[in-house]
Design a protein that fits this description.
41% helix; 3-stranded antiparallel sheet; alpha+beta; globular; 160 residues
Length: 160
Amino acid sequence: MPKPRHQLVDIAATPYYHCISRVVRRAFLCGHDPLTGNNFDHRKPWIAERLQELAGSFPVDVCAYGLMSNHFHLVLHIDGARARAWSDDEVIGRYGRLFPHTVEEACELPADARARKVHLWRQRLCSLSWCNHRTSVRSFPPSPAAPRPRPPGFDTHPPV
């Protein structure tokens, strides 16, 4: 039976993790789609830029990545010691790049509540789940290509 990620990930045991993210519904992440004739290679630079942005916010090093037509692989090194060495202001700045509205709201909190928020944000920045969520394909710009045609026999409404 599958286990939740928080039971599988132990940075103390190993800080290196292989992550996979894939698209659904026969969508294409990169490459040529033979069904529609569209080419999605324009997304490759977006993905590389996004990985650099995330490495600048999370305490991770991208050791390797591979892009396929419908998924990508990441090998990440999570550096918990680096995150623990960050000042509160640095945590706020890094978290604010990812979630600016959350940080703006927290600036109005009393000092003790704000300190609790910063502690929570530091934990989230060290979390493989939060990092993996921010690398998902949903976080990339929409494709300028037309939507994929529905396969034959696929109806949105049941027959009457």
